[in-house]
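Researcher: Re-running this chain for the archive, since the previous output was lost when a drive failed. Same request as before.
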Amino acid sequence: MIRLLIRRLLQGALVVVVLQTITFFLVRLLPGNPFLGERKLPQHIMDQLNALYGLNQSAWSQYLNYWKGIILHGDFGPSLVREGVQVSDIIAQAFPISLWLGVLGMGIAVIIGIPAGMLAAWWRNRWPDACIMLFAMAGICIPAFVVAPVFGLTLGMNIPGLSVAGWDNPLCAVLPALTLGLINAAYIARLTRGGMAEVLSADFIRTARAKGAGAGRLLFVHALRSGLLPAVSYLGPAFAALITGSFVVETCFQVPGMGLHFVNATTDRDYFLIQGLVFCYGVLIVLANLVVDLVLIALNPQLRSQGAA
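Model: Regenerated C-alpha cells:
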C-alpha cells in the first residue's frame, strides 16, 4: 500500500509539472497582450510594464523564475490585470466558493444518480429502466449552457429567495449546484446501472436469490460494493472538475469562483492567473484520483495485490 501511494504521488507530481509546463508556454502564444486595454499604451510604458513583471526576459528564464517562486515561496506571482493583487489571494478567495458549490453539486449527483442507477439495473430491460436511462441520456446530451438559463427562467424567476446571479446569500448556490448535480447525476446513473447490472447477473447473486434473499439484501449487501466501482472511478475527476472546471455554470450565474476567474483570465491574457488556476486544477485532479484509487482498493481488495505487484 505504501509503495502504491508513493508511486501515485510521484506520477501525480510529474503530471502537474508537465501540465504546468505546457500551460506556461501555450498562454504566451495567445494573441494579444495583458496590458492592451481600450487605449493603446506608449511603447516606453509597455517596456516598463514588461520589465516590472519580468516579461522582457527569455521564456526559459521566466519559466525557471516561476518555479522558483512556487517552490521557495509558494508564490504564483501577481495578477497582470488587477494592480496590486496576488494570484494566490484570488485563488484563496475563489476556491472556498467553488469547493462549496462542488460539494453541493456532487452531493445532489450522488443522491440522485446512484439510486436511479440501482433501480434501472434491478428493473433492467423493463419500462423503469427505459425511463431512467432516457432521462440520463437527456442529462448527458443537453449542455450546461442550456440547462442553466432554463433553471434561471423557470425556477429562479418564480421561486422567492432563489437568485439567478451573484453570491450574496446562501440560496445563491441552489441553482448552480442543481445544474451541476443533475448533469453529473446522469453520468453516475448510467455508470451505476452498468456496474450493478453486471454484478446482478453473476452466479453468486443467482445463488443468493435462490436461497431466498430479498431485493434489499441483494442490492445493498451482495451487489452494491462491486457494482459501484465504475461510478466511484468517475467521482474523483468529476469532483475536481466541479470545483475548478465549472466555467459555464459559474459564468451563467455570475458565481465568483475559480471557473469564472479562469474565463476572465483567459479573456484578459492574465498569464500568471491562468497558470495559478491550472496548477490548482492539476493538484486537485491528482489528489482526487489518489483518493479514488484508495477507495477502489478498499472496495476491491484484489486491486491491493495488483498495485503492490
